[in-house]
Amino acid sequence: MKILALKGSSREKSNSSIMLDRFLEGCKSSGAEIKSLKSQNLDIKPCAGCLRCNLIKRCSLRGDGWGQLSNDILDADIVAISSPVYFFNFPSELKRIIDRFRSFIHVRITEDGLIHTPWVKWRKKFVVLLSMGSPDENEGAGIINIMKFIVKELGENNELHIFNGTRLAVRGQIGFSPDELINLYEKLKIPVELAKSDHSGNIELLSKIYSLGTELGAEKK
Ligand SMILES: Cc1cc2nc3c(=O)[nH]c(=O)nc-3n(C[C@H](O)[C@H](O)[C@H](O)COP(=O)(O)O)c2cc1C
């Protein structure tokens, strides 16, 4: 299986990238081929809104990294995206990439609404790994709704897997030991009783992510 991994956080040791690394470890154990990219290192222009993609079946913008990135996306069996939640949405570098997905789809305006038809048939698995400060995973709903919509419109055989890491403030926190988490919660004035359950929740989440990596990485095309 070919995997394209896209890291969306600018922070070193970010929680979302730790989640993605766990997924990739699982995939590697199954012998998958992985290409890893960081969204902030990619030179991707914002969508110009020209809608020429509806006619020419590709993005009309030239001179940035989209040509290569779009080929990498089309080539992958699994697209894994890790992202922090920024004001209920993707950080801007990732949002630029997502907006350019418009060029993968033909859109027709009808009396009853929009009809989306992808230029080619997609059969991919998408894995979205979110990290947010809030204990309420609904803070990531904006991202999840975008991804559910795009993944569905690109092909009925696509699959979407979503993981939410919650109450994650500082770098590396998802991997903290119980004592490290207690110290942090004392500093942040969060009830320390929560540290124990949050620690087991983080371990369980990372373990589920790893398992999905082993499972998807081992699948035959
Ligand atoms: C600009 C900005 C906006 C944020 N907006 C939200 C938000 O809407 N909801 C939330 O739960 N956390 C929000 N956060 C907190 C981050 O989502 C949180 O710290 C996350 O764990 C960072 O992920 P990372 O460690 O992968 O970089 C925001 C952080 C920043 C810097």
Question: Your description of this structure?
Answer:
With 221 residues, the chain is of the alpha/beta class. The protein has one domain (2-218): 3-Layer(aba) Sandwich (Rossmann fold). Helices cover 40% and strands 20% of the residues. It has 7 helices and 7 strands, in the order βαβααβαβββαβαα. A 5-stranded parallel β-sheet has the order 2-1-3-6-7, sandwiched between helices. Helix 1 runs parallel beside helix 7 and helix 6 packs across helix 7. The longest helix has 26 residues, at 193-218. The chain is globular. Flavin mononucleotide (FMN) binds at residues 9, 11, 14-16, 84-88, 131-134, 139, 168-169, 171.
Let me know the number of strands: 7
- The whole-number mean of residue pLDDT values reads 96
State the share of residues found in helices, binned by percent: 40-55%
Total separate domains:
1
Instruction: Label the CATH architecture.
Output: 3-Layer(aba) Sandwich
State Rg: 18 Å
Output the structural class: alpha/beta
CATH top level label: Alpha Beta
The CATH homologous superfamily is termed Flavodoxin domain
How much strand content do the residues show? Answer: 15-25%
Write the layout of secondary structure elements.
Elements: E1 2-7, H1 15-29, E2 33-38, H2 53-56, H3 66-75, E3 78-84, H4 92-100, E4 105-110, E5 113-118, E6 125-131, H5 141-154, E7 159-165, H6 178-188, H7 193-218
Residues 9, 11, 14-16, 84-88, 131-134, 139, 168-169, 171 line the site of flavin mononucleotide.
